[in-house]
Amino acid sequence: MKKKKGTAYNEIAGQSIERLAGLSDGIFAVAMTVLVLDLHLPSVESIHSESDLWRALIRLSPQVGVFAMSLLTLSIFWVGQQTQFNYCSKADRNFTWIHITFLLAVLIMPFSTKLLATFITYRIAFAIYWVNMVALGILVYVSWNYVVKHLHAKTVLLHDISTAIKKRIIIAQSLYAFGALLCLVNTYWSLGFILLVQLNYAIAPKFSRRLG
Amino acid sequence: MKKKKGTAYNEIAGQSIERLAGLSDGIFAVAMTVLVLDLHLPSVESIHSESDLWRALIRLSPQVGVFAMSLLTLSIFWVGQQTQFNYCSKADRNFTWIHITFLLAVLIMPFSTKLLATFITYRIAFAIYWVNMVALGILVYVSWNYVVKHLHAKTVLLHDISTAIKKRIIIAQSLYAFGALLCLVNTYWSLGFILLVQLNYAIAPKFSRRLG
Amino acid sequence: MKKKKGTAYNEIAGQSIERLAGLSDGIFAVAMTVLVLDLHLPSVESIHSESDLWRALIRLSPQVGVFAMSLLTLSIFWVGQQTQFNYCSKADRNFTWIHITFLLAVLIMPFSTKLLATFITYRIAFAIYWVNMVALGILVYVSWNYVVKHLHAKTVLLHDISTAIKKRIIIAQSLYAFGALLCLVNTYWSLGFILLVQLNYAIAPKFSRRLG
Amino acid sequence: MKKKKGTAYNEIAGQSIERLAGLSDGIFAVAMTVLVLDLHLPSVESIHSESDLWRALIRLSPQVGVFAMSLLTLSIFWVGQQTQFNYCSKADRNFTWIHITFLLAVLIMPFSTKLLATFITYRIAFAIYWVNMVALGILVYVSWNYVVKHLHAKTVLLHDISTAIKKRIIIAQSLYAFGALLCLVNTYWSLGFILLVQLNYAIAPKFSRRLG
Q1: What's chain A's Rg over C-alpha atoms?
Q2: Nearest CA in chain A to B168
Q3: Is the pLDDT assigned to residue B154 strictly greater than 80?
């Protein structure tokens, strides 16, 4: 309709879902590798025997826990994004920008992880980390809504699938929110609880599959 | 015609647009992730309480502003490049080298961002950053000209689309140039103005869409 | 069957093998580049002549050996993963998570390499490095088993191929285990032996091809 | 023929040219970005005015020259590899390993660039840099030979194209070798000469195109 007045840039921008997938895979790959880079080795000067090295590595374990949580989180959201892309054959400008915003939240993950690993007992560090997870969740939800409403996804089983995806996101975010609240007791409790939730989603044992 | 004398390397080089897209996605992904890596955490020694950490994070905010501006800029140019690629089915040697030059300007972005974030009150730092943005704009413009003239793009609506793309680049670059001039007053004004321009392009609210 | 009660998220998640290939290529590319980044230059202050620089570079050679071993290992497993992907046209949720776990083992490689290069005479460093290699082997084996059983791979020559792939993994892992045991004598022996095994797999001279 | 005795792993490994292209794009993207990361900013303490910053940036220019040379070199070899891939529809084990070796030479480029930028007046640093360029050239040559002999490339114009590609590689490598010899006079002469050669290949002005 508006085309009578000439094509606007926003009507033709960002239509390639393959490019969006390529950028996403690149950003997830770099963000995940960079996470592990921030695990610092013990300094050479402080190590004089095998048992020194062993103890130094044991002392790294809370940091390793934080990094494992972030790697699992990024993996889970990568699977989520990929699953949504299977249901659309084309992107448009809005869908592209929803996912660029999603990718910015992915990019910030190494920063919030490093913040949490360095200040593991501080609630503010945990709060920022949790806000990052909430942002990922909201953007995945908004994206799915947009796919259903505007991108003419394949219609077979669509209602069922839509419900499954939304239910999944809401349950996961509720569990993360509960985990975040645990930091009122102690940030280690939060960390442990969310790590278990993520492991459960990754491994998906039989008894929990019923929950979706 | 010249083929009678044998095929020259330059006639057969650089014809895969998929590879060019792959390299572009990789470089954008790494450049964007690397930007965030340069956000330095407050040092552990200087933090003794939750409010210390909070104040240290607040003090990071000008840096965060610079990084947000760069992330938005790279996102906007990624969408721009992707949009152009939709209109050509094949690359050639010249098109490939125009885009490699464009990617070199993308690669330099983390350097000029770090320079600006470190020397945020210096006009030279802002000038270098602005030259980087101008280079991106010129190369996107040259590339589109080349697509229209040599790569036999799909012809439906082509004139309209060509006008929309060129108008978009020129308006954006004029706004950036005005923003850069504001650094004669103060570099923070420049930063704020350009950040607003980029947010406007990313969000594209209804009232501004008329401008293209 | 269970579909009567509605589609579960796990039935629709992670079906794109192209995305999994894209994430894998990205993670391998970053992990391999990052390995080389950890090779530290001699400091400028300590070098006053061409022969100083030459000696400083010679002194880097054990580190270079460790990095070469890791680059070869990652290359070999990249070829292995790629070969498996040729035999399946589709992924599913479990296959995706097997490969994400494989990629996490790839991501940890730069960390265990840096640990080994820094503490090259310590058995614990070598043991952690070896566990990383074993993890890669187990996951490639599990993945192939899953392809054969669940992903309806192309059936021509399948039994032959399946045997070739499994035999290859088991022989390689036995050689790595023997190499790891050599660290009871000296970690340099382990390093040298495994480096030779990897070179043999990469170059695949005529006489060793019979072994598969 | 040998298949009667069962399929050997090496007969089925490494057949996906798309995966090889994906890994290559990833490694080139990361290597090029990482090059720029090694350009160090002047330290904040040493800068007190706009002119201090300007002089500090000017002092960076030899380093910038080295990095520009490496970026151009990697770009030229990326175009070269891509051009070859257009002539084969399938990879095999040997082709895959030739290109993995090529990619290892790409991966080492950031290291030899940093070495040269740090020790810019040392001949050993220049020699190592030049060996890296020779390795890239040899592997691109070997790869093209393999394509022509074993990968049943498209035959139209093949002889012409084969000659063009080989001539190009040999002329380029002769010019690099001459540039490297100039370091007997002074490493800056070498750097300047090779930089001009690379600029010539990237821009390919009319008068030089006749040379191929």
Answers
A1: 20
A2: A9
A3: no
Task: List the one residue out of A32, D141, B16, B19 whose CA is nearest residue C29.
Answer: A32
Distance CA D202, CA B102 (A): 13
pLDDT in tens, D115-165: 999 898 888 999 999 999 999 999 999 998 888 887 765 555 567 778 888
Domain boundaries, chain A: 15-209
Nearest-5° angle of CA D181, CA D186, CA D187? Answer: 75
Give A 5-24 residues with CB within 8 A of chain C: 21-22
Phi, psi of B38 (to 5 degrees): -80, -5
Q: How far apart, in whole angstroms, are the C-alpha atoms of residue D53 and residue B124?
A: 8
H-type alpha helices, D38-92: 50-59, 61-85
**Given CB atoms, is B29 within the 8 Å cutoff of chain C?**
yes
Size of interface B-C (CB pairs under 8 A): 4
Residue D87 pLDDT > 90: no
Q: pTM of this prediction?
A: 0.90
Q: B29-41: buried (b, 16+ CB within 10 Å) or exposed (e) per residue?
A: bbbbbbbbbbbeb
CA A64 – CA A61 distance, rounded (Å): 5
Tallying the residues shown for chain D, one arrives at: 212
Rounded CA separation C84/D141 (Å): 29
What average pLDDT does this structure show over D66-94? 88
Q: Under an 8 A CB cutoff, do A86 and C15 touch? A: yes
**What residues of chain D lie within 8 A of the CB of A21, using their CB?**
none
Pairwise CA distance, residues B156 & B150, whole Å: 16
| CA dihedral sign of residues B1, B4, B10, B15 | positive
Cα distance between residue A31 and residue C2, in whole Å: 37
Report phi then psi at B97, rounded to 5: -75, -30
Cα distance between residue C206 and residue D94, in whole Å: 12
Mean pLDDT score, A164-182 = 88
Residues of C in contact with D31 (CB under 8 A): 33
Tally Cβ neighbours within 10 Å of residue A155.
8
Q: Residue written as tokens 């202050």? A: C45
Contact C57 D108 (CB under 8 A): no
D88 is written with which tokens? 């084969």
Q: What is the pLDDT of residue C4?
A: 42
**Residue among C28, C116, C102 nearest C72 (CA):** C28
**Separation CA B28–CA C27 (nearest Å):** 15
Are the CB atoms for B77 and D3 separated by under 8 Å?
no
Most C-contacting residue of D1, D18, D19 (CB-CB within 10 A), to test interface? D19
ipTM: 0.86
- What is the identity of the amino acid at B58? I
Please, are residues D128 and D187 in contact by the beta-carbon 8 Å criterion? no
Please indicate whether, in this complex, the C-beta atoms of B16 and D86 are within 8 angstroms of each other.
Answer: yes
Q: What is the pLDDT of residue A2?
A: 38
CA distances from A115 to A70, A180, D33 (A): 12, 16, 25
Chain C residue numbers touching B30 (CB-CB < 8 A): 30
pLDDT-based confidence at residue C25 (cuts at 50, 70, 90):
very high
Q: Are B100 and D75 in contact (CB under 8 A)?
A: yes
Q: What is the pLDDT of residue B63?
A: 87
Q: How many helices (H) and strands (E) does chain C have?
A: 9, 0
pLDDT band for position C21 (cuts 50, 70, 90): very high
DSSP assigned state of A6? -
Tokens standing for residue C210: 């019979």
Instruction: Print burial letters for D29-47: b (CB count within 10 Å at least 16), e (below 16).
Output: bbbbbbbbbbbebbeeeeb
Structure tokens at C155: 């059936």
- Alpha-carbon distance C30 to C33, whole Å? 5
